[in-house]
Sequence to fold (384 residues):
Amino acid sequence: MKRGGLISLIFLTFMSGTATLAAVSENPVFSARRAAEELRAATRALSDARIARDRVQALSRTINAYEDGLRAMRAALRKAAIEARSLRLEFRAKRDEVARLLGILQTLQRTSTPLLLLHPAGPLETVRSGMILSEVTPALQQKATDLREQLTQLLVLQGLQKSAIADLKKGLKGVQDARIALSLAMGQRTNLPRRLTSDPARLKQLAQNSRTLSGFANGLADLPFDRADAGTPRPPDFSKARGTLPLPVYGTLLRGFNEADAAGIRRPGIILSAPPVSLVTSPWSATIRYRGPLLDYGNVIILEPSAGYLIVLAGLGQVYGEVGQILSAGDPVGLLRGKDPSARDFLVEASQGSGEIRQETLYIEIRKDRKPIDPSAWFAFNNK
Fold:
C-alpha cells in the first residue's frame, strides 16, 4: 500500500464512525451486587425472625425482603442480558470497521514515522499528511481504548450471569424456608382477637351451594357475627381509605374492573399479575369472614374491613388464619399459587426475554352493601 493511501485510509476509517457503543443508563453489575446484598440481608433477617417475639410479623418482613431481592436480581439480569446483546450486535455491525482499525494500528506499529509521513506527491502533500495523522492518531488510540473497555464490559456481563446463579440459589432457598416457617408460625398463632359466627354450619352450606362468587358474597353478608373479644379496638373507618390501600401483593394490573378477558368474560373486580408463591397480605384491618376453596377461584379469603364492606382475594395456593380472626393491616393471609422458579429459569428468562418464569394472578373484588365497586379506585398501585 502506498503511504499516502495509508493516510487516506486512516482518515476514512476515523470518519466512518467515531461514536462509541452506548452504555445502559443504570449499571446492571451494580444493580446485581445490590440485589445480592439484599438477599444476604434477608438471610440474616430470617435467622433473627426465628426467635422474634412476633414471629409472624418478622417472617412476613423477611419474605418481603427476599421477594424484593429476587425481583431486583431478576431486573439486573435482564438489563445485563440486554446490554450484552446490544454490545454483540454493535460489534457484529462494526466488524469490518474494527478489522480495518486493527490493520491500521498494526501497520503503524511496523512502519517508522519518517517513512509513514512521506507522500509521493511531494513535500506539500507530505506536510498535509503529517497534519492529518497528528489529528487522527489520538482519536484512533481513543477508539481502540473504547473498544477494549467495551470488550472488558462484555466479559464482566457474562461473568455476572454465572455468579448470579449462586446468589439466586441461596435466595430461593431462603425464601422457601421463610415461607415454611411462616406457615408454622401462623398455625401456632393464638393471640389474635376473634369474632364468632352465629352458625358455622350455615357458612359451610353456603359455600357448598353457591353457584357464583356474587351469590356467595351476598349470602355471606347475611351471616352476622355474634360478638368480638373484649378489649378489641374499634377498627378504623374503611370509607376513608379510598385511594390509599397498599396492594395485597407486589404485582402489575393485568385486567381492570369489568374488563373483558380473551374469552369475553367480564368480572366485577381486577386481576393482578405477580410472581408465583408471592406473599399476600391484608390491605386493611379486617375480620376473616371466609377462607378456603370456592367454585373455580381456587383458594379464596374474604375480609370484612368495616360493616357493609367485603374484600375478596381469590387465586391463592395457600391461605392463613381462621374465620372470625381479626387481622391488622399488613398481616399475611396466604401465598399465591405456583412454584418457585429455579436459578437457571432466571437466567433463561433474562437471556431469551421469553417470559420463561410464569406469573400467577390474584383476583380482587371490593363490595359495598352487596354491590361490587371498582377496586382500582381504592388501591395505591405504587404503594406496595
